[in-house]
Amino acid sequence: MKHRIVVLGAGYAGAYVAGNLARRLSPKDTQITVVNAVPDFVQRMRLHQLAAGRDIEAPKLADVFAGTAIRLRLARVTAVDPERQVVALTSGGGELGYDTLVYALGSHGADHGVPGAAEHAFDIAARPSALRLRERLDSLDRLGGRVLVVGDGLTGIEAATEIAESRPGLSVALIARGELGARLSDGARRHLRRACDRLGITVLEHTSVDAVEATRVLCSDGTALASDATVWTAGFAVSTIAAAGGLEVTENGRIIVDRTMRSVSHPDVYAIGDSAHAIGDNGRPLPMSCASAGYTGRQAIEAIVGRLTGRTIPSTKLVYTYNHISLGRRDAILQGVDDEGRAKPTYMSGRKTARIKAGILSMSLWATSHPTYGMPTRRHRLAAAHASSPVGSRPA
């Protein structure tokens, strides 16, 4: 019986890991299955651009994995039972057994219980919601209107600047709980303010939102802000599936892993990307980010290949060194951070920085869409202990 590797989620982290495992492990004794809710690869880092009106490529996963021997299951994951080593699926999928599980379900927008946010606000954490926002903005373009972006993290800043630049007929305001760009250096913060002024974005600092209604946002100081489209970017959360299944998780539901991305409670489960609570080389938890997805994914690949083939497991880098923020199509900020996660005094900005960001996005898409690139002619066979894992057994 082949060793069954199941990857949950085909975002940046999941698709990358699945493709690389297919490149490095022999199909003679491994079977790799990817479970994903939608048939397309979603460029989540560009969903704010999609919402603003850009055409963003969404490759079919069937095409991405063609020729890799990877099996694609289109279904939603409803539960994980790590004791029985099975995953429950929707769409008539029943249960799917595994010997090694890679948990890469990522994160989604979180309304933090703010009344009306789920019903009346748009989030850009998923393609369907980004398209709904796009449709709403299209309707406002003909009449004009006011767009409120709630949340001044990286996603909120990128959304506000992209919408303001792409749709100059709309009035855009950015609501910040504290000071705008508080995590940036002084120089980068000044550049961000100049960019908002150039794009006509109204910045409302030190403002908290208590409720969202269909045509306005209610703030904690009692003010009501008119809104024809409220964009909610005030936080992200992970699914409760891991916690419900009995995996050891943090208070916010992220799976606690060791240095090799292996669950500390269930050694046949690996977690990567936003789903993982991984400690970086600086001793601090890696933040939810595309960069963290790449680093945790790379370490998981080395660990899985090493353990299954009896090879030494190298320690790959687990670092977080910068924040890269798009400010529309022709401007961006590249802000370096130190080992404590604090902004360094130096930063980059302007058109060159925007081109660097665009290049990173293009490379990420290319790498994910070409998992067979560099496919070796001879791939690693599994060690005897893993070559025919019986159902219900756990890899050592």
Automatic annotation (TrEMBL):
What cofactors does this protein use? FAD
Keyword Oxidoreductase (UniProt):
yes
What is stated as this protein's family in its record?
Belongs to the NADH dehydrogenase family.
PANTHER family the UniProt entry points to: 64 KDA MITOCHONDRIAL NADH DEHYDROGENASE (EUROFUNG), APOPTOSIS-INDUCING FACTOR 1
Question: What are the record keywords, sorted?
Answer: FAD, Flavoprotein, Oxidoreductase
Question: In terms of domain of life, where is this protein from?
Answer: Bacteria
GO process annotations (BP): aerobic electron transport chain
Query: Would the keyword Flavoprotein turn up in this protein's UniProt record?
Result: yes
Looking up InterPro entries in the UniProt record yields: FAD/NAD-bd_sf, FAD/NAD-binding_dom, NADH-Q_oxidoreductase
- In its UniProt entry, the species of origin is given as Nonomuraea wenchangensis
Cited SUPFAM superfamilies: FAD/NAD(P)-binding domain
Protein name (record): NADH dehydrogenase, FAD-containing subunit
Q: Which residues form the FAD/NAD(P)-binding domain?
A: 4-293
Alphabetically, the GO molecular function entries are:
NAD(P)H dehydrogenase (quinone) activity
